[in-house]
Automatic annotation (TrEMBL):
<protein>
    <submittedName>
        <fullName>Uncharacterized protein</fullName>
    </submittedName>
</protein>
<feature type="transmembrane region" description="Helical">
    <location>
        <begin position="138"/>
        <end position="157"/>
    </location>
</feature>
<feature type="transmembrane region" description="Helical">
    <location>
        <begin position="112"/>
        <end position="131"/>
    </location>
</feature>
<feature type="transmembrane region" description="Helical">
    <location>
        <begin position="172"/>
        <end position="189"/>
    </location>
</feature>
<keyword id="KW-1133">Transmembrane helix</keyword>
<keyword id="KW-0812">Transmembrane</keyword>
<keyword id="KW-0472">Membrane</keyword>
<feature type="transmembrane region" description="Helical">
    <location>
        <begin position="52"/>
        <end position="75"/>
    </location>
</feature>
<feature type="transmembrane region" description="Helical">
    <location>
        <begin position="87"/>
        <end position="106"/>
    </location>
</feature>
Length: 204
């Protein structure tokens, strides 16, 4: 996950104004930090260590808002349609905050899981549309796999019996899903491709 996000943020910044770049950077840092906490927590548990509850839950409070504002930044990138306005940043921030407040209110992380799923899907779909405009079928296929794989992981994680074999399969699938995302983003940010020559929509 971290590799793809690290590649995407500069790609957005290369074609966007300073405001969009700052938002993309904030979203990227939030996602990478959340992913790092998730990986650290899983490693500790896998090695027989304690289940650190705050670490397990904190990832959702970082991933949801991070994906939401990064999706807004990517939506600001509109090739050949720079005069069209997008939804204001405050609307995306409000969506993320609703998830945070709801999660705190019900004492569960599922509201933030909804925010994360919706925003990461929006991000991937936006990348697919950018790839389509430039005829990048390779990137479209990789991002399609990323979406399908992400939803598959969600269904697998919901299984009541989490065997060791199932957990290893989930982790392997997770690696493949985010590797596909990273390769797709790298492909789109190469010279002459979708994120290398597009213009930016007006922001508010």
């Amino acid at each position: 996950m971290a590799t793809g996000i690290t590649l995407l943020v500069p790609g957005v910044g290369a074609v966007a104004g300073p405001k969009v770049m700052r938002v993309a950077l904030a979203g990227g840092l939030s996602i990478v930090t959340g992913g790092a906490l998730k990986a650290t927590w899983k490693t500790i548990v896998a090695l027989g260590g304690p289940d650190i509850v705050w670490m397990a839950k904190a990832q959702f409070f970082l991933l949801g808002p991070g994906f939401t504002i990064l999706a807004w930044a990517l939506l600001s990138v509109r090739p050949g349609d720079a005069g069209r306005r997008i939804a204001p940043l405050w609307a995306f921030v409000a969506f993320a905050l609703i998830g945070v407040v709801a999660a705190a209110g019900v004492g569960a992380t599922w509201p933030l899981l909804v925010v994360t799923t919706a925003s990461s899907t929006l991000l991937a779909v936006r990348l697919i549309l950018l790839a389509q405009k430039s005829g990048d079928t390779v990137a479209m296929a990789l991002l399609g796999f990323n979406i399908l794989g992400s939803y598959s992981m969600g269904m697998l994680a919901g299984q009541p019996e989490q065997t060791i074999a199932l957990q290893w399969f989930e982790e392997s699938l997770n690696t493949c899903v985010w590797t596909a995302f990273a390769v797709a983003v790298w492909w789109l940010t190469r010279a002459g491709r979708a994120l290398a020559h597009v213009r930016t929509a007006p922001v508010s």
